[in-house]
Automatic annotation (TrEMBL):
SUPFAM superfamilies to which the protein is assigned, alphabetical: Resolvase-like
UniProt biased composition (Basic residues): 107-125
One Pfam family matching this protein: Resolvase
Region: Disordered, residue numbers: 100-125
Span of domain Resolvase/invertase-type recombinase catalytic: 4-106
Taxonomic lineage: Bacteria, Bacillati, Actinomycetota, Actinomycetes, Kitasatosporales
Protein name (record): Recombinase family protein
Length: 125
């Protein structure tokens, strides 16, 4: 979160923030809308370089009301929810795998580093 704050503090009016995918910028529905509001307020454009958003201006506002366009808001919220679901499922599957490994007697984590003993050559049978 602090990286996002630093980025938003560094950006100046007329700048464009480029990111590879939306999920690199935000963690949830409420957060993306807050970020979009700050970008709009500070006159900073946002370009996300993935298939879903590459042609869409995510800071676009209605000319009369100044509110975020309904279609942009819907798209952003839907994809943010899908990203949140994906992260939650990944976390659940990771914990399930760790519990299953623990039940078999294994423990999670990195395997010990290889020792520096010279390897024995295998003899052909």
């Amino acid at each position: 979160m602090s990286h996002i704050r630093a980025l938003l503090g560094y950006a100046r009016p007329g700048d464009t923030v480029h990111i590879s995918e939306m999920f690199r910028l935000v963690r949830g529905n409420g957060h993306i809308l807050d970020v979009l509001d700050v970008l709009h307020r500070d006159q900073v454009a946002l370009r996300i370089h993935d298939d879903a958003f590459s042609a869409m201006d995510l800071t676009a506002r209605h000319p009369r009301t100044g509110e975020l366009l309904s279609t942009v808001k819907f798209m952003v919220q839907t994809l943010a929810a899908a990203g949140e679901l994906q992260r939650d499922l990944q976390r659940e599957l990771t914990y399930d795998g760790l519990r299953a490994a623990e039940a078999k007697g294994s423990k999670g984590g990195r395997r010990p580093a290889a020792t520096r003993r010279p390897a024995r050559r295998r003899q052909a049978l």
